[in-house]
Design goal:
This protein is an alpha+beta fold. About 30% of the residues lie in helices and about 20% in strands. It has 19 helices and 22 strands. Strands 1, 8, 9, 10, 11, 12, 13, 14, 15, 16, 17 and 22 form a 12-stranded mixed beta sheet that branches. It has a 4-stranded antiparallel beta sheet with strand order 4-5-7-6. Residues about 15-25 and about 540-545 have low confidence and may be disordered.
Length: about 550
């Protein structure tokens, strides 16, 4: 590692926090070749692309690895080459050949080959961690993956499927983290007891992206170091530090003092208070992220369709949009976000306590009921308190159970919640990502292979599941869109999901920093072009609205 050692960086970050907490004395500004970004990173559990499935981890690996396919940030509906420069599909739709980029290198100096790409995809299936379903839905298993995914040569990767899918569906899936190409030789040198290097790769990197992982300390920081071998040229800065700062008030203070360069997640009031500061700019980045409630069908009242309908009428969407959310989101009630193919703009529900009380009475809950709501993060906690108050108008007594992201998500994934209030981001920019998550439940047993959001909430509609699985095989885009719109209407009117808002990331950056590409999904925020000047460019363009 060039420049400061890991121990020196650890000490530097520790001193920053200690001095900040000790009083209002000034701190040294962040170094000229380093960008420090403050945000909550308490959801991170792994940086192995075969396992990473949380918001922060997915953003980080997007900067450590190149994926076979990526999106055009200028037009996210267009797929472009990543580690693969081009591809072709057979007439029957069963075979896709990818031509790898010539002369591309991993950070280790090893060449990026089709063998590495094939091994990386097969490794996802063999390890069978949380995101493996993205590939497994094509019929890949540990038993057949060698036969179906292989290198035809050093330059050509072949992926075969046993049934035809919508033409862009496989390509869209490969834009997600599981499409990352991993340095086989480096990882296997650290393999232990047949784990395919998994234990080592959780806290190391072996990619060909713009950065390499220098250090990660859970709930403290991630340090990325520029990769000079990156095919598009190494980043201008030497290090990108993502520092865990859970308190948004602390983020604002550190940003204003220059102790961090970027703040992620400030509240609307904090943004309003800092907007006129000529040294910072506010960036609004619309995302495919949804804020929603998941109602566990094992909790008696929540299994009643009339109760679920009543809860929809107890959400004051308009008031929440004007108060809690403001710039951080827009009202959206269907499961496919705006900006993705086949998105449906339907908002039939509005705040109507009288209608809600009538529905509850019909369901036998005239006196209401008690329920627990799990939430994490500043936005969800603010939403939870507002919803708690509006639910009380129908005698629904909500106990809010706060926690950090890792804790709450672990509970949610184990199906131990009653109501979950949180966020969901599309795994790839195809409608099936969300349609499958919210509507399909192939097997509701506790040890099921496909553990979708429908599974997490113990909801299974076999007819809807069949419709979902048929959608990915429709070649005609118009018919596919029609089918997905039908599914969305079913979920909207009768499911254990209440979709509240589509998210907008609010980033507040010092004007000395520019060049980060804020993409449409949680894993398309790219740091490669970040640059830093030693002068404040001035007050022009106070807000960069990327909507």
């Amino acid at each position: 590692m060039s420049g400061r050692s890991i121990k020196q960086w650890s000490a530097f970050l520790a001193v920053m926090v200690l001095v900040l907490l000790s009083g209002p004395t000034g701190l040294a500004r962040t170094p000229d070749d380093v960008v420090v970004m403050g945000m909550s990173i308490d959801d991170m559990v792994s940086l192995d692309p075969a396992e990473t499935f949380e918001f922060t981890g997915a953003e980080i690996i997007g900067n450590l690895y190149e994926r076979l396919v990526t999106i055009d940030l200028e037009d996210p509906t267009q797929l472009i080459g990543g580690a693969a420069q081009s591809w072709s599909q057979s007439a029957d739709g069963l075979v896709t050949r990818f031509r790898m980029r010539p002369d591309a290198l991993f950070a280790s100096g090893n060449p990026v080959t089709a063998q590495d790409a094939a091994w990386s995809l097969r490794r996802v299936i063999r390890l069978n961690k949380s995101p493996a379903f993205i590939l497994a839905q094509f019929g890949f298993t540990p038993e057949n993956v060698e036969e179906l995914i292989y290198a035809e040569s050093d330059d050509v990767l072949v992926i075969r499927t046993r049934s035809a899918f919508a033409p862009t569906f496989l390509l869209s899936c490969l834009t997600s983290g599981i499409g990352s190409v991993v340095d086989r030789k480096t990882v296997m040198a650290h393999a232990v007891d047949g784990d395919l290097g998994h234990a080592w790769l959780r806290k190391h990197s072996a990619g060909s992206g713009a950065f390499v992982l220098a250090a990660w300390r859970s709930k403290e920081y991630v340090i990325l170091e520029a990769n000079p071998l990156y095919r598009q040229g190494g980043p201008e800065i030497q290090k990108m530090i993502v520092q865990h700062i859970g308190e948004t008030a602390t983020q604002r203070l550190m940003l204003e003092k220059g102790d961090i360069d970027i703040a992620r997640g400030l509240t609307p009031d904090q943004v309003a208070g800092i907007r006129d500061n000529p040294q910072v700019e506010v960036i609004l980045s619309p995302k495919s992220k949804l804020y929603y409630m998941g109602l566990n069908q094992t909790h008696g009242p929540l299994a009643d369709p009339k109760v679920r309908q009543a809860l929809r009428y107890l959400i004051d969407y308009q008031k929440l949009a004007q108060t809690v959310m403001r710039e951080r989101g827009k009202t959206h009630q269907t499961v496919v976000p705006e900006g993705i193919f086949a998105s449906l703009d339907a908002q039939p529900f509005s705040f109507d306590p009288a209608k809600a009380r009538a529905l509850l009475a019909e369901a036998g809950y005239r006196q209401g009921f008690d329920v627990q709501m799990d939430s994490y993060g500043a936005i969800a906690e603010d939403l939870a308190q507002a919803i708690q108050a509006s639910f009380a108008q129908a005698n629904i007594r909500v106990e809010i159970i706060p926690g950090d992201r890792k804790q709450i998500l672990t509970k949610y994934r184990a199906r131990n919640h009653q109501i979950f209030l949180g966020e969901w981001g599309s795994d790839y920019l195809d409608p099936h990502s969300n349609i499958d998550a919210f509507a399909a439940n192939r097997d509701n047993r506790h040890d099921a292979v496909f553990r979708t959001l429908a599974w997490r909430n113990n909801w299974r509609d076999p007819e809807l599941t069949s419709m979902v699985l048929a959608g990915i095989h429709r070649a005609d885009p118009e018919k596919r869109a029609e089918q997905y719109e039908t599914i969305q209407k079913r979920i909207l009117m009768d499911s254990p999901f209440i979709i509240l808002f589509q998210g907008v990331d609010v980033i507040v950056s010092r004007r000395t920093v520019s060049g980060i590409k804020w993409g449409p999904s949680f894993d398309t925020n790219f740091y490669h072009h970040v640059r830093k000047t030693d002068k404040n460019p001035g007050p022009q363009a106070v807000q960069q609205d990327q909507r």
